[in-house]
TrEMBL record:
Keywords: Repeat, TPR repeat
UniProt cross-references to PANTHER family, sorted A to Z: HSC70-INTERACTING PROTEIN
Family: Belongs to the FAM10 family.
Purpose: One HIP oligomer binds the ATPase domains of at least two HSC70 molecules dependent on activation of the HSC70 ATPase by HSP40. Stabilizes the ADP state of HSC70 that has a high affinity for substrate protein. Through its own chaperone activity, it may contribute to the interaction of HSC70 with various target proteins.
Biased composition regions of type Acidic residues, renumbered to the chain: 74-91
InterPro entries: Hip_N, STI1/HOP_DP, STI1_HS-bd, TPR-like_helical_dom_sf, TPR_rpt
Stretches with biased composition (Gly residues): 293-302, 363-399
Compositional bias ranges of the Basic and acidic residues kind: 54-73, 254-291
This protein's name: Hsc70-interacting protein-like isoform X2
């Protein structure tokens, strides 16, 4: 075999090793069929082959941008394993003496807009005195009726309301007592008595915190031994509830902070996953783009570069690489890209580079010449090889830095995913 043909055949075999997709080109169908007839197994064609036009770079960029814009959906929060702690879960407060809430119809509160005359006021005071006398005798129901009559004549009298409230407390009707006491406080907020009886009513309902607040207000307005006694009973229970609420609130905040932290971590993990998948996809896309063009051009072939079929069908390129002098020049440059300066004035080499530059058009003279020359050199062997020399020479002619070359004289062609 002629040494020149043997060298070109070796280059073609190296190209097939680095880029098996070449074997799926239509021009090499005869070669592929022959290999398969010998029992050889050819790797399946990649998704995007040289027979299929490459996706324009702009479209790929747009797809990548759209995917990058998509906010990664955070994973659904796992079901909270820790059950929500009830506010009363760890409280053990003695409710001895508490009563069930009374549900009677609200008592008459009079008309607050009533114009009270002096005569009406005197009548109301007389009814109040009668009511207090009934209370002292233990006739609480009669006392309530008398106080109610007085309220109807003078609905702006705070004593009538808190006196009736005291009767309701003694009858274990805390809700009625709270209504009367609240009305008395609205009329005269500086009176200690309505706070006293409302505090006692809240104690009967087990509302320890409300009871403590009202009894403390009563004690500030006017010292009362009975108020002080009740406050000593209610105070510890109210403090226990307040401490429990602080503890519960602290735990609630800790749970919320933990949930927010876990949610943030899941969102960050999801974004990182998307980022890695996007980077992997771009890597695969870039690898396929480079794999579609022989020549091993670093960074992939530029947009608009001719494919293998077009280069193999160009008779001038195929003829140029049959020239022993041209092949020797490109082999020399593949070994040492700096040697490109030796051939800048060689008309044969320059003609090949100019031809390849025209093939690549706006993609860049140097890059186009390099990659195209690689394909052309291989075409001389029946498929397309010698890529390294072409890439080196092309880069030099364009004035840019020469791409790297493999020691074997052929650019490494990236594997196809």
């Amino acid at each position: 075999m002629d040494p020149k043909q043997r060298s070109m055949l070796e280059s073609f075999v190296q190209l097939c090793k680095h880029n098996p997709a070449v074997l799926h080109s239509k021009e090499l169908s005869f070669f592929r069929e022959w290999i398969e007839s010998m029992g050889a197994k050819i790797p399946p064609a990649p998704e995007s082959t040289t027979d299929k036009p490459s996706q324009p770079e702009e479209e790929r960029d747009e797809e990548m941008k759209e995917e990058a814009k998509k906010e990664p959906e955070p994973e659904q929060e796992p079901e909270e394993m820790e059950s929500e702690e009830s506010e009363e879960s760890d409280l053990d407060i003695d409710k001895e003496g508490c009563v069930e809430p009374d549900t009677d119809e609200p008592q008459s509160m009079g008309d607050p807009s009533l114009m009270v005359t002096d005569e009406m006021r005197e009548q109301a005071n007389e009814l109040r005195n009668q009511g207090m006398a009934a209370m002292s005798e233990g006739n609480l129901e009669d006392a309530i009726k008398l106080f109610t009559e007085g309220i109807l004549k003078n609905p702006k009298s705070a004593p009538l309301f808190f006196k009736r409230a005291s009767c309701y407390v003694k009858l274990k009707k805390p809700n009625a007592a709270i209504r009367d006491s609240t009305r008395a406080i609205e009329i005269n907020p500086d009176s200690a008595q309505p706070f006293k009886w409302r505090g006692r009513a809240h104690e009967l309902l087990g509302n320890w915190e409300e009871s403590a607040r009202d009894l403390q207000s009563a004690a500030k307005l006017d010292f009362d031994e009975q108020v002080d006694e009740w406050l000593h009973q209610v105070g510890p229970k109210a403090n226990k509830i307040a401490e429990h609420k602080r503890k519960y609130e602290r735990k609630r905040k800790e749970r919320e902070e933990r949930k927010q932290k876990e949610k943030l971590e899941r969102a960050q993990a999801a974004r990182e996953k998307v980022r890695k998948e996007q980077a992997e996809k771009e890597k695969r896309t870039s690898g396929k783009t480079r794999g579609e063009m022989p020549g091993g051009f670093p960074g992939g072939m530029p947009q608009g570069a001719p494919n293998l079929t077009e280069l193999l069908q160009d008779p001038e390129i195929m003829a140029a690489f049959q020239d022993q002098e041209v092949m020797a020049a490109f082999q020399d440059v593949s070994q040492n890209p700096q040697n490109i300066s030796k051939y800048q004035n060689n008309p044969k080499v320059k003609k090949v580079i100019d031809k390849l530059s025209a093939k690549f058009g706006s993609a860049g003279a140097g890059a186009g010449a390099g990659a195209g020359a690689g394909a052309g050199a291989g075409a001389g062997a029946g498929a397309g090889a010698g890529a390294g020399a072409g890439a080196g020479a092309g880069a030099g002619a364009s004035g840019g830095p020469p791409p790297s070359a493999s020691a074997g004289g052929v650019f490494d062609v990236p594997d196809i995913d």
